[in-house]
Amino acid sequence: MSEATAFSCRKAVPVSIGGITIYCESFRAAAARVLSEESTADGGTVVTNSAYRSTRLVFSGRVCTQGQPEDFILGFNGLVHSAADFTVEYMGLIYGGCRMLSYSFEDKGGEWAEVSVTVVTEQTVERRADP
Amino acid sequence: MLRDIIQDIISRLRAQDVTDVYSAFDAKAVERKGRSFFTVVGISAFESSAPIYSPYTVYAPFKAEVEINVTAPENYSMVQLYSYYDENISEVVGDMSGLTCRLTKMSIKFDSNIRRLVLTVKLAASGITKIERSSP
Fold first, then answer.
1. How high is the ipTM of this complex?
2. Any bridge partners for residue A102, and if so which?
3. Between A2, A3, A9, which is nearest B96 by CB?
4. 8 Å CB contact of A5 and B4
5. CB distance from B49 to chain A under 8 Å?
6. Does the distance separating the beta carbons of B1 and A5 come in below 8 Å?
7. In which band, very low, low, confident or very high, does the pLDDT at A29 lie, cut at 50, 70 and 90?
8. Using one digit for the tens of pLDDT, what is the confidence trace for A93-131?
């Protein structure tokens, strides 16, 4: 049995969302399948339908209020209004057919603004092929 | 575990050609640390989280407050001490900075016992102890 102790030096990871790059500091992915259940006459249960729901990806990070933080609002707002889909790569995975669901940009009067972006995709996630 | 963390920082400092770096655990007298600049690395706080299990490894996450004390030679000014830090140690601290490690506090005081200025740098850091095990 061996033991090793080391610091972790995690850095914010750049992720391009519809052409806008944010440095992601936290990430959440969620997907689900929905089952429809009906009661039978004898008191049992039967599954009458089964369907998957889109995968939701939430990317959060901070944007420095110096520079041009308004570009993020402009870009993300444009993506909310657009029906076009795009591809997001993160953690070595490819999320194709993503559409913007929501974003938030919160400037609390400090040196940075909190940015959170939620995208959804119906497509299955694929591992990026190594070059 | 604590010695590994301190040794990690010492190795990073030595890799940047910082000389006279000591562990807070070595109990070496100040007189034996030389009349020039010397740096002591220690840990002022440590907190461990519940272990995370996988089939062949147990991961024990931790948070630590690392303390780096830089002692100036006698009669050196604050400016000279800060300059030494900027030129030799700040790069190591900068390289470690990220989501899990950052500089939290810097303070300078005169140690009347040794009559020398001491710069204290505190880092909030986190990491993982990996423990391999032979069976799930």
1. 0.75
2. A118
3. A9
4. yes
5. no
6. yes
7. very high
8. 999 999 999 999 999 999 999 999 999 999 999 998 876
CA angle in degrees (0–180, nearest 5) for B98-B100-B102: 60
Q: Give A40-74 pLDDT, tens digit per residue.
A: 999 999 999 999 999 999 999 999 998 889 999 99
Nearest to B98 by CA among B121, B124, B130: B124
Mutant choice from B57, B99, B103, B132 vs A, greatest count of A C-beta within 10 A: B99
Q: Residue A36, exposed/middle/buried by CB under 10 A (0-12, 13-18, 19+)? A: exposed
Counting one residue from A and one from B, how many pairs have CB atoms under 8 Å apart? Answer: 54
pTM: 0.83
The CATH number, out of the four listed (2.40.30.200, 1.10.3720.10, 3.20.20.30, 2.40.30.10), of the domain defined by the range A13-127:
2.40.30.200
Q: Nearest residue on chain B to A8, judged by CA atoms?
A: B127
- Parse chain A into domains and list their residue ranges: 13-127
